[in-house]
Specification:
Helix 3 runs antiparallel to helix 4, helix 5 runs parallel beside helix 7 and helix 29 runs parallel beside helix 31. The protein has a domain of 37 residues. Helices cover 70% and strands 2% of the residues. The longest helix is centred in the last third of the chain and has 16 residues. It is mainly α and 606 residues long. The chain is built from 35 helices and 2 strands.
């Protein structure tokens, strides 16, 4: 029938409302819908706009659907509002307009129902608009729809995504008859809200209280929580449950298992799951690449990325972000540049996560100008973007520029507000430039102006700043005021400063503490020995060396890389140079010549 319609004069063949409505339902493109619409207008058939709107949404034509919706007289009914809000939420992801239509619906005295609220709440969730969700939540009670399970499930998701897990739990507890979707909504809500322990607890309650057996959704959510908690035991139980029930190891479950094992540091199991999967899509590849990158195994992450390309799986934004992180770790600038070009070709260069990863990669690979270019070209910036650029400037010794960018972030950052990571970057800038007074000002500003509680990273920066400036007693006082025990990095910085300043008093206090915190680090013993040696305290110096030998600790060799044609060649101090490659030999020769021309004289130390 539709073929005849498309090729003949429909005005002669189909002039009744019923036949035209039937024809609308058979349309598969905007063109055919519009042809039927034309015949409705010609034949003065005006009471079937809902069918036209439904079909325009089905063919995913936003402009045409909006046109039909806006011309409904006297105004759209509840069905039209509901399908339009649903389409805006799930098809076009135009969440602000979905909210606008909800309020317009109310202003026209069209009553929302149980088909309206679930999609309205999902739009609120995606916009993190908790105030609008609360208004609609109140309306649910007024309309007697608070027991509707679909609305309740969407509301749980909304409150969780908006950082209100307690409100989500209250909604969950008030559901009179909970089903598996109810439990899954609460488990996923807790997991997404960062309440991993609560997610695991609800997972356990699900079987005990209501006798529900977990499905894929339950397992994927709880695996995410296991990864955050490092709960390897429960994660392994979930894998056993999947095997025991004969559940398919699909992309959904497989990638969740890979991510869980990787976050728990068990890369062997993560790789075992990956290798056992019959089909691997981009989600699965992303899980294993990210897992290796996050565990510091950048070489393996990059190898997997090349294997992914060989397997004809197209990388997406998440892939590029993970690989750029690996490139930053080992200084693989050439590959990083290739990914930058690839991102531009795919239209990903302005994605906020890819661009932020590019800034970090370029900065850590020594190309500050490229990092600044990417930052400047970003149409939108979030906290992570500003922080990456501030940290980039700080690590390159550009303290003045980092502080200036912080001021810009405060003045014109839009929704981006300085957070604890921002201040780590700023304090690091002060460390590199020796700006003690500015460091004090920023440290105080955290709590007084931004209501941020300094963490161990901020104390570490301040200790390092004071230590480098020779204010060793003030640095030690700050260590004693820290809310938790200092880490080995903080103590190591102060110990190194004690050596440079020949301060054995503070040095001995730090030694006692650092040998408890980091007893296997050879550098701590060597520096301690040299502090005594600088003051001609030879017996104490020898004692530190003897203690190191008695504990079987050997000096960790230095390591460096040379990248040639996307391949990284690693060298360890003391290995000797067995150079098979002429290219590597030539590069090392050129480096020697450059050093000589610059007048560098090697300083040989023990």
């Amino acid at each position: 029938m539709l073929a005849a319609f498309e090729n003949a004069n429909v005005g002669k063949c189909y002039q009744t409302a019923e036949s035209l409505v039937l024809l609308v339902k058979q349309c598969g493109s905007t063109k055919t819908v519009q042809q039927v619409h034309t015949q409705m207008v010609v034949n003065s058939i005006h009471n079937h706009h809902n069918h036209l709107l439904s079909k325009a949404i089905q063919v995913k034509n936003f402009t045409y659907a909006s046109l039909i919706f806006s011309h409904m007289n006297p105004h759209p009914n509840d069905y039209a509002f509901n399908i339009m809000i649903r389409a805006l939420t799930t098809t076009w992801h135009n969440y602000p307009l979905a909210l606008t239509l909800f309020y317009r619906m109310k202003s026209l005295s069209v009553t929302p129902d149980n088909f309206t609220f679930p999609f309205f709440f999902l739009s609120c969730a995606n916009l993190a608009e908790v105030s609008h969700a609360r208004v609609a939540h109140s309306l649910l009670f007024k309309l007697g729809l608070h027991s509707d399970p679909h609305s309740a499930h969407s509301l749980i998701t909304t409150y969780a995504r908006c950082g209100r897990p307690a409100c989500a739990r209250k909604v969950f507890d008030e559901i009179p008859h909970r089903d598996l979707v109810s439990w899954n909504s609460m488990i996923a809500g807790y997991a997404k809200a960062g309440c991993a322990r609560e997610a695991v607890e609800v997972f356990g309650e699900m079987g005990r209280r209501d006798g529900f057996e977990p499905d894929e959704m339950s397992l994927v959510s709880v695996l995410g929580a296991c990864g955050e908690l490092g709960d390897l035991e429960l994660g392994r139980w979930v894998e056993g449950f999947v095997v025991e029930r004969g559940m398919a190891l699909n992309s959904f479950v497989g990638s969740a298992l890979i991510s869980m094992y990787a976050k728990c540091g068990d890369l062997g199991s993560a790789r075992r799951i990956f290798d056992s999967m019959a089909t691997r899509d981009v989600i699965t590849w992303n899980a294993v690449i990210s897992g290796y990158a996050q565990n510091g195994m950048a070489d393996e992450a990059i190898s997997l990325f090349h294997a992914m390309k060989d397997d004809s799986v197209k990388a997406n934004k998440i892939t590029l972000t993970a690989v750029l992180s690996a490139c930053a770790t080992i200084g693989a600038l050439d590959l990083g540049k290739q990914i930058d070009e690839h991102a531009s070709q795919r239209g990903f260069q302005h994605d906020i996560f890819v661009a932020t990863a590019l800034i970090d990669m370029y900065a850590k690979c020594g190309s500050l100008e490229s990092a600044q270019r990417v930052f400047k070209e970003m149409p939108q910036k979030n906290e992570a973007s500003w922080n990456a650029m501030i940290s980039a400037l700080a690590s390159h010794g550009k303290a003045k520029e980092a502080l200036s960018l912080f001021q810009r972030m405060s003045d014109e950052g839009g929704g981006a507000r300085p957070n604890d990571i921002t201040f780590v970057g700023l304090l690091s800038a002060c460390v590199h430039a020796g700006l003690v007074a500015e460091g004090h000002r920023l440290f105080d500003m955290m709590s007084t102006l931004f209501r941020l509680v300094p963490k161990i990273e901020h104390y570490s920066c301040m200790v390092d700043l004071l230590a480098r400036a020779g204010h060793l007693y003030e640095a030690w006082d700050l260590i004693e005021k820290m809310p938790e025990k200092p880490d080995k990095v903080t103590l190591g910085a102060l110990l190194g400063a004690c050596r440079r300043n020949k301060n054995v008093d503070i040095g001995e206090r730090v030694m006692r503490m650092i040998l408890e915190v980091d007893p296997s680090n050879s550098g701590n013993y060597i520096i301690s020995s040299k502090i005594y040696a600088n003051l001609n305290m030879w017996e104490d110096s020898a004692r530190m060396r003897l203690l190191m030998r008695q504990k079987g600790i050997t000096k960790t060799p230095g390591c460096s890389w040379i990248e040639i044609e996307n391949h990284l060649h690693e060298f360890h101090a003391g290995d000797g140079l067995c150079l098979d490659s002429i290219d590597i030999s030539n590069i090392i020769f050129l480096l020697y010549e450059e050093l000589k021309r610059e007048g560098y004289v090697p300083k040989v130390v023990e």
